[in-house]
Amino acid sequence: MNRILEFLARHAMTAMASGVFIGLLVPPLAALLNPLLAPAVWLLLVISLLRVDAADSLAHARRPLRLAALLIWSLVVTPMVMFGLLAWSPLPSGVAGAMVLAAGSSPLISTPALGLMMGLDGALILVILLGATLLVPLTLPSVALVLLGIEMEVSALELMGRLGGLIGSALLVAFACRRIWGAAAFRQISGQLDGSAVFLLIVFAVAIMDGLTARLLAEPGFVLFVVFLSFAVYVGLIILTALTLALLVPSWGRRVVLSVGFAAGCRNLAIILAVLPAGVDPDMILYFAAGQFPIYIMPAVLRPIMLRLLGNKTISGSMPDEGPEE
User: CATH number of 2-310: 3.40.630.10, 1.20.1530.20, 2.30.42.10, 3.40.50.1000?
Assistant: First the structure.
């Protein structure tokens, strides 16, 4: 089993990218794995908590003004910018609305693990993830109602309770594991942890594709256009955030700027999907499913770029490249 996990860790980017295509090509498997979406998300968070150095995360948390500014940017400013950009666009309202909601969501649960694979600051990404995930029940309904006129099916209090339970239970499990076995034990099995994260990401990717194949066969041109838009939003949020921080706070350094930029692009679409009202525009659901393509494919593209920008050829304790860097 350890060899299998380490193999997945070594070939993480290829394995992740294959997950969404497996889900598309084998719809019955996607339907079968769909009930595993929530458990996979929870386990990914536990692995991220075990994988990241707790002391580094606490160091970032001790800079509350910087953290607050980053959370405001991620949860308030970026959806407003997206709304302004799309206000006069000819895009279908469902697709445009989904793009605004995506820009206002918290980072994906797997973002710290993915960031570590790229040599980014996983501890900083984890702190942003935890803060944004706790606040998004308050901010996202406001974004949906004020900017889009959509009323979420779940109240902010109920959503906060769900997310609080998800994060709180994962924190307790990770804390207990560290107390029992010690942090050094998890550093020694970093390859197996990374492989486990990749496996869970594949399970999630296959499961989230449930229903997308039928829509792709019915409307191939439109679905591919929405997939293209999801890539544009993913990359656009990374570039916008990284450039803004590089101009406004160059003293933070390249690693911090790139880490925050990556977290800004890799948004949690599953949270939005879980709380949209039953009669929501089907194009919104389509966008959130299509948005999995950049989440799973772009890390393979971004990793060599990030390593080059950071001046690293290899990363201690994380996944090596699958081939030589160009």
Answer: 1.20.1530.20
